[in-house]
């Protein structure tokens, strides 16, 4: 079987109310099928540091799907190869055993206490 990298497209900036960019993600991550990849979301003490982070997956032409919430909780039906954690002001989503169907847009979401609003990727 030929090695073929899988690209996970990530939304670069996450915005909240008044279009203030307060959560940031790296633009892309790639990995070979079967590998482990981690994507990160950097926030602040006012959002991820207090409230943790939720992660969404958006397949082309589909509505966003909740993958993880409250930093490390997985809704039923989400494969256990998806896991998440946060440390300080950074949230991380890890996909273990990358599969072809994991090629998608991923974005993070957190509540921000200074804006009394949710910060979300668009």
SSE inventory with pairings:
Blueprint: E1 5-10, E2 13-15, E3 21-25, E4 28-32, E5 37-42, H1 48-51, E6 54-58, E7 65-68, E8 82-87, E9 90-95, E10 105-112, E11 117-121
Parallel strand pairs: 1-10
Antiparallel strand pairs: 1-4, 2-3, 2-11, 3-5, 5-9, 6-7, 6-10, 8-9, 10-11
Pfam families: V-set
Signal peptide: 1-19
InterPro entries: Ig-like_dom, Ig-like_dom_sf, Ig-like_fold, Ig_sub, Ig_V-set, IgV_Light_Chain
Describe the structure.
It is a single chain. This protein is mainly β. It has a single domain (5-121), classed as Immunoglobulin-like (Sandwich). The protein is 3% helix and 48% strand. The chain is built from 1 helix and 11 strands; from the N terminus they run βββββαββββββ. The chain has one helix at 48-51, and strands at residues 5-10, 13-15, 21-25, 28-32, 37-42, 54-58, 65-68, 82-87, 90-95, 105-112, 117-121. Strands 1, 2, 3, 4, 5, 6, 7, 8, 9, 10 and 11 form an 11-stranded mixed β-sheet that branches. β6 (54-58) and β7 (65-68) form a beta hairpin. It starts with a strand and ends with a strand. Residues 6-19 have low confidence and may be disordered.
